[in-house]
Amino acid sequence: MNGHSIDRWDVIDRAHELARDGEEFALATVVWRQGPSSGQQGSRAIITAAGRLYGWIGGACAEPVVIREARDVIRTGEARLLLLGAPEQFGAAVPDGMAVIPIACQSEGALEVYIEPVVPAPHLVVVGRSPMAHTLSDLATALGWCVDLRDAPDLSLADLGPRSIVVVATQGHGDEETVELAVTAAPAFVGLVASHRRGEAILGYLADRGVSRDRLDRVRVPVGLDLGHTSHREIAVAILAELVRLRAAGELLPAPTGEPSRTGQPPRSGEAQATDPVCGMTVAADGSGPMAEHDGVTYHFCRPGCRGAFEQDPGAYVTAAYARQEV
């Protein structure tokens, strides 16, 4: 995507969308410029971990450097302040802590760019209606996590993403169906509130139904630190404590390559398929992923973020989709 036409407020809207989808990114802001330079003070851009840039931060000289540095900021989680230009332009006037990076422009322009990492709040999906499920939801909300509390019949693939943390606390009310749906979405984590014996029975049943052993091996059962015989409130604390520990250790990551990583699954051979009008991805048109209707037509999407973008301006995306088909 060419982000040069995106203004600074559109960049902020895009940042909200990425954060909602749980995607890490970096925000780069021009805080000072010396002309001639195409970058302007206050210009902003978003850079994803994959190196995609949305917005405008400067021309062909500055952009590759900013993308490279932003990806490293995402990796390390540490913000940095860059001074882009020829070192001789600044002499001994560079403050401590600021990195000077030469850029091979013919002009004598320079930019000072602040790059900060943005790590979205964890997305916790608690499935169940027990007092423990409500307590866990309340505790995680108090930590600033993004929490969805769902009853088992209300859970769908559209509620889950590759970075979702799912805790199944259905306690005998649709355990098997809920775990099967959760592992199908290949979220970052699936935990089941059950005893070892009950957990083995559920996973064995799903294996007999043909659910991949690789997926089932990712289910943590029982979920939570082992505190012995405890109350439902203490079980909620034990579960959240384990999730906090895993997150701090960097273990709550999206599923490995080869597992589905989006809620809209690629179609199998012979299945109906559709093209996501927002990102162009081919997805199954079987109702398993996010959908929206416009002018009597049903559109299918790879993830809720694309559906949300479509719903804000469906006409623009429909026009763009037709244009792609004609190329």
Task: Please tell me about this protein's structure.
This protein is an alpha/beta fold and 327 residues long. It has three domains: 8-118, no CATH class; 123-248, NAD(P)-binding Rossmann-like Domain (Rossmann fold); 273-326, no CATH class. It has helices at residues 8-20, 62-76, 131-142, 175-184, 196-208, 213-216, 232-248, 304-312, 314-326, and strands at residues 25-34, 44-48, 53-55, 80-84, 98-101, 110-118, 123-127, 146-150, 164-168, 189-192, 219-220, 273-275, 282-284, 291-294, 297-300. The protein is globular and about 70 Å long. It starts with 7 loop residues before the first helix and ends with a helix.
Secondary-structure blueprint:
Blueprint: H1 8-20, E1 25-34, E2 44-48, E3 53-55, H2 62-76, E4 80-84, E5 98-101, E6 110-118, E7 123-127, H3 131-142, E8 146-150, E9 164-168, H4 175-184, E10 189-192, H5 196-208, H6 213-216, E11 219-220, H7 232-248, E12 273-275, E13 282-284, E14 291-294, E15 297-300, H8 304-312, H9 314-326
Parallel strand pairs: 4-5, 7-8, 7-9, 9-10, 10-11
Antiparallel strand pairs: 1-2, 1-6, 2-3, 4-6, 12-13, 14-15
